[in-house]
Amino acid sequence: MTHDDDRALVAEILAGDRAALARLVAREHSWLVRLARAVVRDKAVADEVVQDGWVAVIRSLGSFEGRSSLRTWMATIVLNRAKTAAVRGARTIAVAHLGSDVIEDEDSVDRSRFGGVGFWAKPPEPWENSSPEALLHRREVLARVDATLGELPDAQRAVLTLRDLEGWSSEEVCNALGVSESNQRVLLHRARAKVRTALEELLGPESR
Question: At residue 147, does pLDDT exceed 90?
Fold first, then answer.
């Protein structure tokens, strides 16, 4: 959906078109919950955050200027509320500091798997090409991915959620989370590497 489409939809909602509002909610609600869960983790809290976020979105639609996409604008609203909920629940998280240009300096990826300029020394085979027997464990695979996402540092989980689960562009992620392009790239790389490592551990050497 283009920015012009966004502005047209907002205009319809502001004019009192309930069907237009219903379309917006149906289109955006599920991923907003997933985004909130990337911060607060607990689904019940994420649901509350998004409900509160919708109230704020509806009240603030008149101030939407279309400088960014509508989804990025809404993501910012929900993320701010999610961070507040996390702090309130004594779950202070790194996402609150995503605006920093300081990239994590701990080693979170096996450097032996990469060449001197950051490319794979030996590209891994896609895990989807594993044996049919391994693919029968789809539920176990999905459970492992979900568990690994839950273990990721909050900044990595938020970036991975938007880029790989929601299909956002790098620019959209940077705008929504307030991170630099270089920071976003490193966070995504490390998150993907951890998920792949978890899958390789589950599926065995043939997945490498």
Answer: no
